[in-house]
Amino acid sequence: MVTRGLITLTTGLLLLLTPELTVKTVVMILGGILLLNALLTLLLSFRQKSSAVRSFRVAQGIFNAAVGLVLVLAPEMVVNLFIIVIGIMLLLFGFLQFVGALNAMTMPNKPWFLLVSGLIMILGGSFLLAKPETSTQTIVSILGGIMVLYSLAELYSAWKLSRAPKTYQGNAVEDVTYEEINE
Fold first, then answer.
1. Could you read off the pLDDT of 96-143 as tens digits, one per residue?
2. How far is CA 134 from CA 68, 76, 90, 113, in A?
3. Does 169 fall in a domain?
4. Widest CA span in the chain
C-alpha cells in the first residue's frame, strides 16, 4: 500500500505541476517506441524469404517510422488534434442527446437529466475546440489532483492499518517463534 501510494503521489504531482511537459513527454516516448519498432521491423523484413511478406514489413516499418517521427517532432500538434477530435465527438453526441431529449419532453417522465447532460457535453466540446491546449493542461491537472488525493488516502490507510491493534475475535494476536517438527 505504501509503495503504491508513493508512486501514485509522485505521478499525480508530476501531472499536477507540469501538465504540458507530462503530456508532451508521453507522446514523445510513444513516438520513440514506434521509431524503435520501425527500425526493428525494417531490419527483420530483410530476413523474410517471401517478397510479399518482405514488402508488407517494409511498408509497415516505413509507416511506423513516419508516425513515430510525427509524434517525436510535433507532440503538441498530436495532442491538440486528439483534443479536437474529442471535442467534435462531444459536440455531436451532446447535440444528438439534447435533440432526443427535446423530442421526448412530451412524455410523462420528462428526461431532464438527458437534456442537461446533452448541454454539458455541448459546452465541454465547445471548450475543447475553442482552447485545445488549455483543455489538455486542465484535464491533466485535474487527473493529477485526483491522483494526489487518492495517494494521500492510500498512505493514510496504510498508516492506520500499521497502527491498528492485531486482534482476532476480540483476543490479542501475538507474534511467536515456532519450531519445525519433522517426523
1. 999 998 888 888 888 888 889 999 999 999 998 998 888 888 888 888
2. 25, 12, 17, 28
3. no
4. 82
Place of cell 516499418: 61
The verdict on residue 171 lying in a domain is no
- In this prediction the pTM is 0.62
User: How many domains are contained in the chain?
Assistant: 1
DSSP state of 173: P
Contact 166, 173 (CB under 8 A): yes
Retrieve residue 183's grid coordinates.
517426523
Work out the burial of residue 108: count CB atoms within 10 Å of its CB; fewer than 13 is exposed, 13-18 middle, 19 or more buried: exposed
Its sign, for the CA torsion 40, 42, 43, 48, is positive
Count how many residues are written for the chain: 183
